Amino acid sequence: MGLDEYQAAKEQIKARTDIARLVGESVVLKRAGRGLVGLCPFHDEKTPSFHVYPESQHFKCFGCGEGGDAFTFVMKKENLPFLEALRALAQEAGVELPRTTGGDRQRSRERDDFHRVLSEVHAWFTERFSGPEAAQARAYVVERGLDGARQSFGLGYAPGSRFDGPQPLVNFLQQRRLSLEVGVTLGLIGKSARGYYDRLRNRVVFPIHDERGRVVGFGGRILPGFESEREPKYWNSPESPVFNKRRILFGLHQARQAKARELLVMEGYTDVIAVQLAGHPGAVATLGTSLTRDHATLLRRFSPDGVTLVFDGDAAGRRAAERAFHSLAGETLSSRICLLPDGLDPADLVQQEGGGALDAMLAEARDALDVWLQLVDQRLDLRSIDGKAQATRECTDILVTVSDRVRRDDLLQRFAGRLMITPDVLQAALRPSRAAARDVRPSEPKRPAAPEKSATSQARTELCAALLCEPGLLEDFAESSLGIDGLFPPPCPEHAFVTRTFERFLEEGDLPSADELLSRWMSLASGDTATTRLVLHWSDVARRIEDARSSVHRGVGFLEREQLRSHVETLRDSYRKALSNGDDAAARQLEFAMAEAMRRLHRPG
Predict the structure, then answer these.
(1) Tens digits of residue pLDDT in 582-597
(2) Distance CA 321, CA 372 (A)
(3) φ, ψ at 51 (rounded to 5°)
(4) Which of the residue ranges 238-242, 388-392, 413-417, 546-550 would you say has the lowest mean pLDDT?
(5) On the chain, which terminus has fewer CB atoms closer than 10 Å, C or N?
(6) Long-range contact list for 96-99, CB < 8 A, 24+ apart?
(7) By the 8 A CB rule, do 346 and 340 touch?
């Protein structure tokens, strides 16, 4: 989708969306003059202060200050980023978002094919679960107390138990004329010298959804009696073009459907299902990986009331808790850690002792930082010199990854207090670590200094650098009143890089990691020395950014004000011409327009 097409689609969606009907689906509205009023869905109140204005298609709460258009409402109400809200409203309004051409269109078709195959295979698994061959699978689900989740989680059954026997899934794909090679790419089937074979056999199947509810892979639990070295107890789909374990949380789709505001992070499918059935709809799990920074981003988006990490209290669980804190340390969300009794996972606890036992354990969960420090003390003994020195290194390793200055200062103070050293000592230990993180390799040639730039050019440079720190901030660009094209108009060198990234995101629905984005931009600049040097300069600036989100807000705000200043100057010139031509009516209109533009320009924030 090109930027012009994107803007046109956005305006078409807005024109077709009745904001009164949209808001009215979740808020009881009553007529009040030319607008509507109701209780605000974004804060607790007893007297209605939430107003909807159908004529201008916007809303405003005079209690908490929230306001905006249909896109803003969906983003705030559903906790969605801008582009997901755009897609959701487009589907509801019957507006087809245009696609790009060439390679992007081909990639989009491939992803659509992948999702179609996964959807059909999921339907096949669920159908098998109801057949006579799945009696043992159904008995296992009942025994584990998971039967109540058959529909909500879409449980299925994978038949077949031998490599050299019938291959039911392969046969199904062939009958449906679905590509076997796509099946291999998605990890559903394998390929050997003897032909294609099923990779899921004699297992209860757990479909894995992304946060938008699309099936992206499967997990399988082997039925009792069929375990072997060749058949592990648990099996996950391998990574594919639509499945990245580092960016998926099992159960998040169901948690969002239940509008859970606090997420409980655990480590297994059955744990998630058992805990959700026990009355905690926010239970989610990682998929065979430690908690990552990408997972932490999902938690920040979808867990406004905080997150609790639930781990087994054995040695492996304690190590997992420590690793998880590393990923969450830099996030500005409330996080706690709950360590269960040794050898007891959440599903066992619920099944053996009931949901009340889990509630009691969760009530005892403590601040994640306090638990992490306690675990470090148990492992290193902070009373010893060597233990304190090693703990100091581990604290600095965490601090150098935290971009938010307020959060970093808070962590530094609390680390220093527990280590019984002054903050200045820890700050001094932190400086070499941060310098080392910024240093380039000794073998790398020295890069030339960047030329002097205008304030506008410097703002765009900082925006690109911030994007290299946190690619997810691309959505902040799209939400700007200027839009992508306004922030980076075609003559500027940043235009091609940001717009190509944005268009690819519109097609794929997934943002690259910071390293992937730098690699893409270097590839885009290849063959042009000056452009390559420009991208390297952005990368250098990125190393010096402490708070990428603040950098984006500052840069976007500056460019929006510059655009307003230019608009004021244009109005002023037109006003002077109207006066010189004796056109008093036009002059009065321009005077009002200038006053409004000046008011917006000097508005606080």
Answers:
(1) 888 888 888 877 777 7
(2) 7
(3) -110, 140
(4) 546-550
(5) C
(6) 97/1, 97/6, 97/9, 97/506, 98/1, 98/2, 98/5, 98/6, 98/9, 99/1, 99/507
(7) yes
Three-class secondary structure assignment of 90-148: HHHHCCCCCCCCCHHHHHHHHHHHHHHHHHHHHHHHHHHHCCHHHHHHHHHHHHCCCHH
In the DSSP assignment, the letter for residue 452 is P
- The total of other beta-carbon atoms located within 10 Å of residue 168's CB is 17
Q: What is the pTM of this model?
A: 0.67
Q: Are strands 58-61 and 67-68 parallel, antiparallel or unpaired?
A: antiparallel
Q: Are 284 and 252 in contact (CB under 8 A)?
A: yes
Which pair of structure tokens corresponds to residue 382?
A: 């902070």
Residue 107, CB-side half-sphere exposure with 13 Å CA sphere: 17
| Residue 307: its H or E element | strand 307-311
Q: What is the mean pLDDT of the chain?
A: 84
Helix (H) or strand (E) holding 308, with range, is strand 307-311
Q: Are 154 and 129 in contact (CB under 8 A)?
A: no
List alpha helices for 285-380, DSSP H: 293-302, 315-328, 346-353, 355-363, 368-380
How far is the C-alpha of 220 from the C-alpha of 256, rounded, in Å?
23
The first and second tokens of residue 577, run together, are 């011409």
Amino acid 146: pLDDT: 92
pLDDT-derived band at 327 (thresholds 50, 70, 90) equals confident
Nearest to 310 by CA among 278, 294, 408: 278
Amino acid 450: pLDDT: 45
Strands, E, within 165-202: which ranges?
189-192, 195-198
Strands 30-32 and 195-198: unpaired
- Residue 179's alpha-carbon distances to 103, 110, 122, 175, 215, in angstroms, are 20, 11, 16, 10, 17
How far, in Å, are 84, 106, 281 from residue 258 at the CA level?
Answer: 18, 35, 6
Residue recorded with tokens 């050997």: 192
The token pair that represents 118 in the structure block: 């996964």
pLDDT digits (tens, 9 = 90+) for 17-74: 999 989 988 888 998 887 899 999 888 788 899 999 888 888 988 888 888 889 889 8
First CA to last CA across the chain, in angstroms? 32
As a whole number, mean pLDDT of residues 570-582 equals: 85
Q: Is the pLDDT of residue 445 over 50?
A: no
- Asked if 270 and 221 count as a contact pair (C-beta separation under 8 A), the reply is yes
Residue 128's φ and ψ, nearest 5 degrees, are -65, -30
Residue 215 φ then ψ, to 5°? -70, 125
- Count of CB atoms within 10 A of residue 313's CB? 16
Residue 520 near residue 508 (C-beta atoms within 8 A): no
What would the mean pLDDT of 404-409 be, rounded to a whole number? 80
Indicate if the pLDDT at residue 446 is higher than 50.
Answer: no
How wide is the angle at C-alpha 497 spanned by C-alphas 496 and 500, nearest 5°? 75
Strand order in the sheet with 203-209: 156-158, 203-209, 215-222, 234-236
Asked whether the beta carbons of 359 and 349 are under 8 A apart, the reply is no
The two tokens of residue 523 are 């590839």
Angle between helix axes 70-78 and 82-93 (nearest 10 degrees) is 110
Q: Kindly compute the dihedral angle of the four CA atoms of residues 385, 390, 392, 397, in this order, to the nearest 10 degrees.
A: 170
